[in-house]
Amino acid sequence: MRYFERHALGQTIARVRVLDARICGTRKLNQLVGRSFHKVRRHGKHLFVDAGDVWLHIHFGMSGDLAYYLDQPPRFARLIFSFDNGTHLAYQDMRLFGIVDLTPSLEDYVREHRLGPDPLDPKFNLRAFRALLHKRRGRIKALLMSQHAIAGIGNLYADEALFRSSIDPQRPVDQLHREEVKKLFTNIRRVLHDAIALQSRGDDYPSRFLIEVREDGERCPRCGGTIRRTIVAGRTTYYCAKHQR
Ligand SMILES: [Zn+2]
Question: For residues 48 and 93, what is the distance between their CA atoms, to the nearest angstrom?
């Protein structure tokens, strides 16, 4: 989001080139020519860019990224916006899980796709989190991974938040104690804030993070227990068999 804000706001779009139509949604991106991007908003893993009466929507999938450049497009460029000052913004994606599309408004998109709240939205507070968990069944990790429950925590960060909260990812939602829910809520936001800060500085994850020991049989950096691998909701999941209960 900051990358987009820093480089691509306010310039007139002179040309839109689609190099791989598989990442494009149903709407023609050409209608952006002559417009400019005004502001950027994020909702989970979705980025929305206001371009007048239409919004550009980008979902980065697993490997999508933006590259702002002057001469040389990135190797896996799938889509290029060229601005009238001679600069370009490419959407690059080594794999093809991302999507770039237009939508009338962010609110329309969120409603249409029944996306859950953004965990970093200031309006998303502990009370809202409790309401979300209320009367739910199934495993806590599965709920955290559901886009319809909460938009965009992501597999690694869901594991990380559960790790910090000492909660086994396989625990049924309705068996979590009040204190655990509170701890988890705090840690979800901390993990996401940490991740954004680390990424923007280009730093590695600290060694106390589960992310650094994602391997079956590794030692837990927190308690010395054994890290285990399992599958929850179809996703590879790591947790400490000792301190996560
Ligand atoms: Zn541990």
Answer: 18
